[in-house]
Design brief:
Blueprint (H helix, E strand, L loop, with lengths): L5 H20 L16 H9 L2 H4 L3 H18 L9 H9 L3 H20 L27 H10 L5 H12 L3 H4 L7 E2 L2 E5 L6 E5 L2 H8 L20 H14 L8 H14 L4 H8 L4 H24 L27
Antiparallel strand pairs: 1-2, 2-3
Helix pairs in contact: 4-6, 8-10, 8-12, 12-14, 13-14
């Protein structure tokens, strides 16, 4: 017998009998645990947020990650009065997190706090004075280098599912949660148009010959997505991440080579070939111009350095017209009082 917790079985039985009991008494069925929610508590405020339109418009992945954080917040603060929530208490909670986790918690709490402010549950934003620890300068995901791309391509040839996954990531430049949803129905007139799963923001990607060749090299199928598992089912974002990690290992690539690193490589490539901030935003579905400027500023610096090198090319800058050989003994000119 499977080791199922008795409380889980009891909850399932209660869920089955609840509607029947309500039907017999003529009462409306109530949400499990609703009678334990005290008005004005953090518990009640978070449950209220889960029922709001602002919560429902979030993508599935975003709701899942933020709910996990909000539930941990409920475990610690659920019985407290939401009206008494202040920045010092939240600061103490965040101080126990890593810099990256602090930012994830702040994103999750921000939507809930805005909900509380809208419904007048609180008068002041307790997040306004919260300070986050500085992120270490790691540079984030490693953008793939040309040699690493060539190594993957040598191992996984055109006509394989592995190569199609790689080309979709690199040529379309989208996140794995969007790549696993891509299909022929999204392409019209050589343009792939979709909405990002996380934000709903549309992106428009021209299907270049190289990507089209990878698509055409695959056997015909009736699947709605280009990529399917060995069982013929669509990938989940997490499952695809594990699958692509294995492909990189098969190609002998270092652990730093990830699916998101190909997205960064695509953005770097386009920026270095003259894409503007707004063109990058349209291609990658970014809502903030600052995201695009990370790549255009870096590309502009490289471009200006190359242009500067052309200006001084052949001028002898950095090479003295009469170099002094270190192998020859040279007279040392005395200076100062001893001259």
């Amino acid at each position: 017998m499977l080791p199922i917790d008795r409380s889980v079985l009891a909850l399932a039985q209660l869920q089955r009998s609840g509607p029947r009991r309500a039907a017999k008494t003529g009462q409306q069925p109530t949400e499990i645990g609703a009678d334990r929610l005290k008005p004005g508590t953090v518990n009640a405020a978070i449950v209220s947020y889960y029922s709001s339109a602002d919560w429902k418009v979030l993508g599935d992945g975003t709701r899942s990650s933020r709910r996990a954080i909000l539930e941990r917040f409920r475990e610690e603060c659920g019985t407290f009065q939401v009206a008494g929530m202040h920045s010092v208490a939240i600061q103490k909670i965040l101080n126990r997190k890593t810099p990256a986790a602090q930012r994830n918690w702040l994103k999750a709490l921000r939507g809930w706090v805005e909900h509380c402010l809208t419904l007048k549950m609180i008068r002041k934003n307790p997040l306004a004075e919260v300070k986050l620890a500085k992120m270490p300068r790691t540079g984030g995901h490693h953008p793939w280098e040309t040699s690493e791309c060539e190594q993957f391509e040598k191992r996984h040839a055109i006509g394989t599912r592995a190569r199609l996954a790689y080309e979709l990531l690199l040529q379309a430049g989208q996140s794995r949660c969007d790549v696993v949803r891509m299909g022929r129905q999204h392409i019209r007139g050589g343009m792939m148009t979709m909405g990002r799963q996380k934000t709903g923001v549309p992106f428009n990607v021209e299907v270049m010959p190289r990507l089209q060749a990878a698509i055409d090299a695959m056997p015909a199928s009736n699947h709605l997505t280009f990529l399917v598992t060995a069982q013929g089912k669509p990938f989940t974002a997490a499952g695809f991440g594990n699958y692509f990690r294995d492909l990189c290992r098969e190609a002998g690539l270092p652990e730093r080579c990830t699916s998101h690193g190909l997205r960064k490589a695509a953005a770097t490539y386009l920026a270095e070939r003259g894409f503007t901030d707004h063109q990058l935003m349209a291609w990658f579905g970014w809502t903030s111009i600052s995201q695009a400027q990370v790549y255009t500023r870096s590309a502009n610096r490289k471009r200006m350095a190359r242009d500067g090198a052309k200006l001084i090319s052949g001028t002898g800058i950095g090479s003295p017209s009469d170099p002094v050989s270190q192998n020859q003994s040279q007279p040392i000119e005395k200076t100062g009082a001893g001259k």
